Amino acid sequence: xxxxxxxxxxGTTIAMWVIGAILLIVVIVGTVRTLLIGKYTGADWTDLIVxxxxxxxxxxxIALGYTMVYGILRMINFAHxxxxxxxxxxxxxxxxxxxQTGFLEQNLVLSLIFVTLVAAFTAAAxxxxxxxxxxxxxxxxxxxxxxxxxxxxxxxxxxxxxGLFGSGIKGxxxxxxxxxxxxxxxxxxxxxQLIVIVAAVVMLxxxxxxxxxxxxxxxxxxxxEDKDAAALMGINVDRSIMxxxxxxxxxxxxxxxxxxxxxxxxYFFMGFFPGLxxxxxxxxxxxxxxxxxxVGGLFLGIAESLFPNLVLDGLGIPAPYQxxxxxxxxxxxxVLIFRxxxxxxxxxxxxxx
Amino acid sequence: xxxxxxxxxAVLMIAAFVLAAxxxxxxxxxxxxxxxxxxxxxxxxxxxxxxxxxxxxxxxxSCECTDPVGCVTVGADDPVRVGWMMVVSGADxxxxxxxxxxxxxxxxDRGTIADHAxxxxxxxxxxxAEGGQTAAxxxxxxxxxxxxxxxxxxxxxxxxxxVMCNAGVPMISASNTAPDLTAADRPADYWCYMRTAHNxxxxxxxxxxxxxxxxxxxxxxxxxxxxxxxQLQQVFADKFKELxxxxxxxxxxxxxxxxxxxxxxxxxxxxxxxxxYPIFVAAGGQVxxxxxxxxxxxxxxxxxxxxxxxxxxxxAAGDAALGMNHSSPDFSAFGAEYPALLEKYEAKYNTKPLxxxxxxxxxxxxxxxxxxxxxxxxxxxxxLVIGKQALRDAMISTKDFAGxxxxxxxxxxxxxxxxxxxxxxxxxxxxETWDPxxxxxxxxxxxxx
Amino acid sequence: xxxxxxxxxxxxxxTGLIGGVVALFLSLVGIVEASLGRYVxxxxxxxxxxxLLAVYAIFAVQAAQKATPEHxxxxxxYRTLAxxxxxxxxxxxxxxxxxxxxxxxxxxxxxxxxxxxxxxxxTFGLGVPQGIFVLLGFxxxxxxxxxxxxxxxxxLRKSIGxxxxxxxxLSVTYSALFAGRGLQLPxxxxxxxxxxxxxxxxDRFEKPIRTRSQALPSGQQRTMRLGVWxxxxxxxxxxxxxxxxxxxxxxITGIFxxxxxxxxxxxxxxxxxxxxxxAFFAIGxxxxxxxxxxxxxxxxxxxxxxxxxxxxxLTAMLAGAILGIPVLNMRGDYLAIVTLGFGEIIRLVxxxxxxxxxxxxxxxxxxxxxxxxxxxxxxxxxKLYYIVVIGCVIAAFIATRLKYSRLGRNWMAIREDEDVAQxxxxxxxxxxxxxxxxxxxxxxxxxxxxxxxxxxIYPHSFNLLVSINVLAVIIVGGLGSIPGVIIGAVALVGLPxxxxxxxxxxxxxxxxxxxxxxxxxxxxxxxxxxxxxxLHEMSPDVAE
Lengths: 353, 449, 544
Description:
The complex is a heterotrimer of chains A (353), B (449) and C (544). Chain A is mainly alpha-helical. Chain A has helices at 2-37, 42-73, 80-101, 103-106, 108-135, 144-165, 191-213, 215-225, 227-232, 237-263, 272-285, 290-312, 324-338, and strands at 170-171, 181-184, 187-190, 265-266. In chain A, a hairpin with a 2-residue loop joins strand 2 (181-184) and strand 3 (187-190). The longest helix of chain A is centred in the first third of the chain and has 36 residues, at 2-37. With 449 residues, chain B is of the alpha/beta class. Chain B folds into two domains: 80-197 and 357-418, Rossmann fold, CATH 3.40.50; 201-332 and 422-448, Response regulator (Rossmann fold). Chain B has helices at 2-25, 33-36, 57-63, 93-110, 129-140, 154-167, 200-213, 227-243, 261-270, 281-291, 311-317, 338-349, 358-375, 388-396; strands at residues 71-74, 80-86, 112-113, 116-124, 145-150, 171-173, 193-195, 218-223, 246-252, 274-276, 301-304, 325-329, 377-378, 384-387, 401-403, 406-408, 421-425, 445-448. In chain B, helix 5 (129-140) packs parallel to helix 6 (154-167) and helix 13 crosses helix 14 (388-396). Chain B starts with a helix and ends with a strand. In chain C, the strands form two sheets. Chain C has a two-stranded antiparallel ribbon. A two-stranded antiparallel sheet of chain C has the order 3-4. In chain C, strand 3 (372-373) and strand 4 (376-377) form a beta hairpin. The interface between A and C is large, with 65 and 66 residues.
């Protein structure tokens, strides 16, 4: 009986590996053919990778919020993308005020930091309020219930912003000092991209320090391991969860400002797709795992930037960038076939997920 | 408590609906009747309807509905009801809200239609076929509705038009541009439809002629997967090739994409000298800005269409918009009222125009209003009888109407836009300076023809 | 937690302040101003005013109830009234602050709806100094009125409360369905009186009637139940008489019921969280379009709706099984995101320039014929409704039979614990794939009907929001429960269609309602008996 069972399971595993292998071969064929055509120069490829890294760092920052909340509550906080939007939006009002008064051009660094702080604070406050109202009462409810409240909250936040601030696209001011490119190790890179990448790295390190080295961070880890045991150990579970939302929200708010630096536009719907992508990134890296969110974000960013050109072009598919999201999800499936718990996801392998 | 309250309200609701639905079957006004009775032909004053005994001898004849499709009767003290059907939620909300604002200003300006107040009613078309169909089902059930301005999106239009036409309610869109909607071989149940927006065939071709004439030979296009952009770039590409140019790349992005640089790198590798992306504000702003940041595209002429010919776009694109070309209706052909319209827009909604179709919507409203005034029969008691077929005929025979978007004359298949297309160049990226067509050099400046 | 708490005068103040913030939000978000033209009582009371009144009502009542602290002594009359009055006053103060500030500084640079029209409404058109006082006085008055309401005897209180709710609810539904413009004053009064009296009588006589009917011999009881079912059936069949727009809403609701029944099998029975359910909906729709639209020239067969229907369902079913294979080993949220990915992949590929020559890309496929039977065309929503009803009845039948079959029990075992299920000898692969395939088939059926209803389809129609909506439908209805799916679809698809009146605020309301419903009834509106039990077993845990 047991033997029979094992055989059957391995049968499906083999089937999946075959499917995975076929998909992988398609990817490789596309890549090789593109490279053989040689339409693009080496500089083109490095550019594409740099674009991918800067986009990926923003995904990573948003993904952290998803992954931290998931780690501690095992729930998908669908409204997280909208928290990100809220941060960027409030940041916009401060930034444009600075721009009008001329403070932005005079004290660029100071005002950027201030804008980021305001955005992070707003987003963090919203995340905490959201947790208090929409998630905390449902902590013992079936898992899908908070998912639905999260979706509801997401709609609510989006359309509240539409109603309060209008549907128009708001453009962040563009300080002169941030225009143009700089050269680093021979790679030409936009100044804004550099700032985004550096800021993201700094925040990731700070977060890592917070989670690994501080008492509060350890408490959060304990709660995500086992809520009841943590409570017995004298850890304030509610507070730990609140702090998780606070930190995740603050990172999303900061990511909102970085995003605005890079892409300038803010509008009420801007959080939805980055949110979705960040969630994908979190799963790709192994959800619940902070390093995984980083890896997943970067992987997704680079994949979106590079792979349509690299893979689809060689397969003769027209307008490949239209399919970049499809390709991103396709890669996600591919990765999960070979590693069903994501690139770095080991901890949550079975029961909890 | 809760259960019983719910139950009682539900029962009441059902009862009310049954009663409300009854008058359709039985002419006697039933309970719930005070409201139900104002519907349809039997007015509460019992003189407007064709079937009740007429009070005044000679005018009664002119008050009878002789229209083959039916009539809308507006009671003596009732307002004339005009509908809009636009996308006001979701990612495309700016498109619909902009047109809606245009309609509202037009209604304010007009004040009255045939000495009756104006009532605007609206539906969200969701910029999708299903949204358009539902909105149309709802609006077509309104027997007081004279005409509709909408839809925002061509996909919504295709589903909405047959429904509205079956109900005989004329429909005039301010932003549908798909050629098939007014093609010569359009389906018979599109008869009630017309538009003040430009047919893609006109605009795309105009841009191609300009580009080729200005010496560009290698063009690339980008669309965003919307019907509007896809068709416009295809018309452009076909015309450009026909003129002898070369299309080196036809790329596409998603409407919510933000990182365009990878796609633009790809375009750059194809080596175009002209980049045409007739898309919308969000993505259009990103393409414009990022085209300046991608090596190899610095010298390429950027061009968009009327979907991004708005101050909102300057906000979204920033300084990168400088020197960009746009195809758009010719503002020098625009009525002198346009600056006044802009002023009212800003005063009323406290924003620069959100998109480029508010003026078209303004004109669309006036075409309806003119049509109603032309065909409405005034009865003794002050009520109006408006023939549906007559209204549609009056609207579609609009000729030389001096609208804001130019001199409007409708073709037999409902293309009402002034066919004059101009190409503009952005001279100043500050949205505050946006004032096309005010003078020959105002920003953006007309450069073609 | 449960010890008697002492009363504090800060309670009504905070309650009022929260109410004030809510009122402020409603004002600034623009919903008040936007619904000024929508009358609840024609010419007298607009929806916008009702929103603000509702805020006063809710928070004044709450404050009055809180005058009696939990497990404390009953509050004296004056305190109840005072609490309600304070809450009402606080709401007015917040709104008054908005007006005062707004008159000084132009808030419109940030809040686009902080318009003079709004200030006018809030100050009763009296301008700043006088209007403010009136507003404050009004707040006090409203507070006291609702305080009095709380003090009334229970039966009376309930009657008046229900009557007050019934008027706007009926008015909105009526206006929405029949393009009306609110109720006339006498009608509104009649509605109020009738509903108040009805609820009063109902409470009086419900119990005796029920006990008497239960005392009837079982044969008569069965006849009665049969009678109720027949009546319900006739009622369902008679619904299209309401007109074309209500039928349209019913058809849309029905399509979501179909999808909900399918997804319920995947998520509710087998516990496989599928966020890409729209993929099969799209496949069903596209197969239908390819088979029937004359626009598709590369496909050799052009046939009618009825011939294409089984192909659409089968293709969707097959796709369900195929897409199920790669996710067999994934669990929980990994499964969710991968299925979400499938949904997006299908949409994006359908939209792409790559497949444009075959399925039209952004241009979609048009000229899909409507179904016809023996020369009878189902060309309007009233007729289409019957096709949808037949589909739903079949789907509900299948879902019910499956639930109590061996397969259904296997699914439930997998849902509860995969590892244990496998150890018990349940074939995971086969059962999971069957769940995916059955669910997909129903979605394909819904898609096929959707395509011929619209006569043209576009990739944009198959976005993620559809999957999310269906999921919300089955969870709000009660996961695993078949009547729940129907109630969920009515509540989340049918009612929002009625809320079309509120155009840009529809999704705002939808979001708020979603959160509210889940907080109030996490088990869903009509939960499956087993699940209800589970939740209640758990409930002592929550309380402590």
